[in-house]
Amino acid sequence: MKAAILREPGSLVIEDVTRAAPGPQEVVVQIAAAGLCHTDLHFLDGHMACPTPTILGHETAGVVTEVGRDVRGLAPGDHVIGCLSAFCGSCEYCLTGRPSICEGAGNLVCQGPSPRLADGSGAPISQFMHLSAFADEALVHQNAVVKVNSAIPLDRAAIIGCAVMTGFGAVTHTAKVSPGESVAVIGCGAVGLSIVQCARLAGALNIVAIDLNPERLAVARSLGATATVDPRAGSVVDQVHDLTDGRGVHVAYEAVGRADLVESALLMTRKGGLTVMVGLLPPEQRLVLPFQPFVAERRLMGCDMGSNRFKIDMPRLAELYLQGRLNLDAMVTSRITLDAINGGFDGMRSGTGVRTVVTWPSGSVA
């Protein structure tokens, strides 16, 4: 099979790769679509380290073609979405309903006499985030995928796997936004726009979208933002306070991954408000915050993939799309083939579009 391999920072190389047969709890998925995510870009550009060579890609959907023994609830022909939040099902966090921060997922990799993934010379290739989706096929544990309604086009289903799941979970699980509350979102990429949509679904009264890109702000308005803020027009904190009668929002999300924007998010919350860090800060960034806002019981917390329960959440998100209540069509702004993947990441670096999705012939674009 063909795969886009990361051997050194900067670019991916398309090569032939072999995979092992599925182990006892593994499935083989024919990849139909895989979104380009900023998390992939962090590793591609060397801002974050991972074992190499590896096959990046973690936002994906496809069709099951093979299952190993002991696999339950999945069969060839099933349409599935992958999730990097693979879980063991038996650790303290899984058993207390927090599988997104499972501490046993590292033990899910099947051990065998040959590498699970190997290049043309037979050298092993590391699996990335339990998925390695920039390839014709993925060999994954059953607890890294979930079956969804086959009526949803797989290129739309793919973005549920990271961006939409993170946004939905950040609203419903991490912050538990209630009807009538106010929300601000810094960064209107795919994750930020998912937060906007899901805040609307949760009944937020005021949803303020903040971004430098006017096209993304226009999309945000179409998806549910009640107001938009351009940082070039002045202090984003002051603008948000002006939009909320001087009080600030109940919940502010930082969906870019910059320490200075986390501070801005904190300062635009009201007393007792919550700031949720969704963006992934590179390791070299240090977060230094003023103490005074915390005196009024403001809170700051992280968010790991939307505190998800993806086996439950993702099928529901697919149904929301099929009911016309969740707009995924507006978020997929470009489709490319695997051999154009480096160009796709170039577009991401320049801020073009919302979400670029690599598609294979098996992916529906209906």
TrEMBL record:
It is an enzyme of class 1 (oxidoreductase). Residues 7-358 form the Enoyl reductase (ER) domain. Signal peptide: none annotated. Its EC number is 1.1.1.1, 1.1.1.284. Keywords: Metal-binding, NAD, Oxidoreductase, Zinc. Pfam families: ADH_N, ADH_zinc_N. The keyword Manganese does not apply. InterPro entries: ADH-like_C, ADH-like_N, ADH_Zn_CS, ER, GroES-like_sf, NAD(P)-bd_dom_sf. Its cofactor is Zn(2+). GO terms for molecular function: alcohol dehydrogenase (NAD+) activity; S-(hydroxymethyl)glutathione dehydrogenase [NAD(P)+] activity. Belongs to the zinc-containing alcohol dehydrogenase family. This is S-(Hydroxymethyl)glutathione dehydrogenase/alcohol dehydrogenase.
